[in-house]
Amino acid sequence: MKKIINNPLAFVDETIAGILKAHPGHLKRVPASSRALMRADAPVKGKVAIVTGGGSGHLPVFLGYVGQGLCDGVAIGNVFSSPASDDMLAAIRGVHGGEGVLCLYGNYGGDRMNFDVAAELAGLEGITVRQALVRDDVASAPLDQAGRRRAVAGLYFAYRIAGAKAETGAGLDEVAAAAEKAIEGTRSMGIALSPCVIPAAGKPTFTLADDEMGVGMGIHGEPGIEVAKLTTADRIAELLAGSVIGDLPFAPGDEVAVLVNGLGATPPEELYILWNRAHDVLAAHGLRIHRCCVGEYATSMEMAGCSLSLLKLDGELKALLDAPARSPFLLQGGW
Amino acid sequence: MKKIINNPLAFVDETIAGILKAHPGHLKRVPASSRALMRADAPVKGKVAIVTGGGSGHLPVFLGYVGQGLCDGVAIGNVFSSPASDDMLAAIRGVHGGEGVLCLYGNYGGDRMNFDVAAELAGLEGITVRQALVRDDVASAPLDQAGRRRAVAGLYFAYRIAGAKAETGAGLDEVAAAAEKAIEGTRSMGIALSPCVIPAAGKPTFTLADDEMGVGMGIHGEPGIEVAKLTTADRIAELLAGSVIGDLPFAPGDEVAVLVNGLGATPPEELYILWNRAHDVLAAHGLRIHRCCVGEYATSMEMAGCSLSLLKLDGELKALLDAPARSPFLLQGGW
């Protein structure tokens, strides 16, 4: 796995520098932090602000979801590592528009610990902070321990829902409640076909034989449910759809949004081949598809693989998901 | 290179089927062809229609550029193979809104031969057809033989410009002239780091050693300028920017649009690291950057690598490039 990089230790900072040079009208640095960014019009007075953050290597997660109708700010960690609490605090301070801040991020230990510290310190400064943790990966813990589950591509739905709610002028409790409703109604399941290489480490995160796939493997290469024989796109679609549908569980007649996510090296053609069968599985289960997004929404650098996410919709969530969102990293209109 | 597929021979048809199930409100089939699609509102009466086409394996090229402000229809070939002239003719017939059709595609022998046949047959049916061939790859032939050059990611600029011009209600000659102006002002140069596997062939399109890169290699693995030692992102940026700037040549004070394109497996982080340096090279040359797009705009399935494209702008091209364009495959707003 060859990389287009300079010094591996400068990977994150050079990525950020390039992003700021590409999209100067969209993103800007947070004062007093080299590892936090915010939307160009932040702080937005009178609006609840949303801060996210996490390790690098997952674009468009996390910083790609900073924009109108999305998050206001982001703290940026090293590859696959939590950002520092100082950078989270700087982001919270930078985006605070007087109506409080929702910290919305993935359920990972390091991120949680550091966001807890940042939220407490922000509270001492008089900023009201609430937290919502995305935990959509059904492979990472059984349903009766859903609080232990990790976040994967389902982050996308949480950002869209919470971001749109905040744009309506809703208060912090309402924005947090909308985020929590999206989180409670999202389920994801994925497979990995190949590892990625962390630049500073220089070696693959795991190994899989040429005829194997990692079922339920996390986006950092965390162990999943099993290593299985690589099978056809149709069988993979049935496996992913079955795992996701059965977990909430999604019931016939439910209206859902779908995200077919590529982990990095898997071409869109293959994601659509997978969806061609997954669509029919969902339809046979009586699910009504309101919106389907196919593409790279949460990646693991050059990892090959994919995931399927479903969000159960109601009237409120549908309206929020259909609201505009704007970022250089977001596929148009949230298709 | 593991793939999420079923029967390799069904790769293209299953991709199309999945796309239609994902985006039913956006795309529909062209009558009497299983290998041609058009925008859901085609034919648009009173508007010049644009038809593109080419081999599969390059998403979002070609069919991802069908939509409002883009192309009206597309003919779809097998992986890396020209579509049949019958499918091109079906697409031309399907989208014709009474004002003529511009066939806008890449300068490849098979595509040209088949589009020539389709255009002639359409002419016999009373449909006025013009053609414009994108030829932006500076590595594929010297400047004094620019007519032999291949198309790569510069297709994106031609689609945006011609598509926006057609939406203004301009006539066929004007739309063709705008497309030609964009084509004349676009230059691209790329490197490949790894091959892809054509599903039906099952083996890599070429080989490169772990410390090598293919400079100027085409998006089907066509030989480029040389196989060189893999170097840093900064040196690659200087190489690509230098090749592109010197070819038109772009002059100090020129206003340009930039496209930093990933070929498939190269993560966005690396594209931004490359842009971090390429931006400075362009700035040092006195070029003014009106707009910068970074992402996967023309791919080669799971190939790793990237390209840099520049479009020289004038007042007309700037306005057209800033006009709205809408497709499930297009990054929002053409950032």
Features:
homodimer; 8 helices; Rossmann fold; 2 domains; alpha/beta; Hypothetical Protein Tm841, Chain: A,domain 3; 6-stranded mixed β-sheet; 335 residues; 12 strands
Give a verbal description of the structure.
2 copies of one chain form a homodimer. Chain A has 335 residues and is of the alpha/beta class. Chain A has helices spanning 11-22, 85-95, 109-124, 155-167, 172-184, 233-247, 268-284, 315-322; strands at 27-29, 36-39, 49-56, 73-79, 101-106, 129-134, 186-194, 212-215, 226-229, 255-262, 288-295, 304-312. In chain A, helix 4 (155-167) runs antiparallel to helix 5 (172-184). The first copy, chain A, is globular, with a radius of gyration of 19 Å.
Biggest interface, chains and residues, is: A-B, 62 and 62 residues
Helix tally of chain A equals 8
What is the multimeric organization of the chains shown?
A: homodimer
Stretches with pLDDT under 50, minimum 5 residues of chain A: none
CATH class type of the largest domain in chain A: Alpha Beta
Radius of gyration of chain A (CA) equals 19 Å
Q: How many individual domains of chain A?
A: 2
Outline of chain A = globular
Strand content of chain A: 15-25%
The assigned CATH architecture of the largest domain in chain A is 3-Layer(aba) Sandwich
CATH superfamily of the largest domain in chain A: Dihydroxyacetone kinase, domain 1
Would you report the number of β strands of chain A? 12
Give me the secondary-structure category of chain A: alpha/beta
The proportion of residues forming helix of chain A, as a percent range, comes to: 25-40%
The run of helices and strands of chain A is: HEEEEHEHEHHEEEHEHEEH
Kindly state the mean pLDDT of chain A as a whole number? Answer: 96
CATH-assigned fold name of the largest domain in chain A:
Rossmann fold
Distance between the termini of chain A: 31 Å
Q: How would you sum up the major sheet of chain A?
A: 6 strands, mixed
Strand adjacency order, main sheet of chain A? 1-2-4-3-5-6
